[in-house]
Fold this protein.
Amino acid sequence: MSKVAVVYWSGTGNTELMAGKVVEGAKAAGADVTLFTAAEFGAEQMDQFDAVAFGCPSMGAEQLEESEFEPMFSACEAKLSGKKIALFGSYGWGDGEWMRTWEETCRNDGAQLACGCVICNEAPDDEADAACLALGKALA
């Protein structure tokens, strides 16, 4: 049984809803899953998990949330090489540039992306829910 961490930051609750679906998908595929907020997770926990899903909405000028999520993620970057990960998040404007940049950062760090990222505009709809379930299953 693989151990999966789902780590997220959510300002409006949209990315939190997505995280719940990722957890549901990973559990359905048989994984042992632990859900963390960005404030509860750090680089020292990376080695405890076979795979990690990171979720963060687009903030400001299409960037990761700066006070909690980005510092936590930056600290985890040194542990991404060879790690199976997946990315998800919501946005309210823009075209998803923050996610493309984030994926490129992860690839450059040597991460193994389990599947394509999942993004949704505002609250997740049925299509985003299904994509988050599939993302969780891909991590398991």
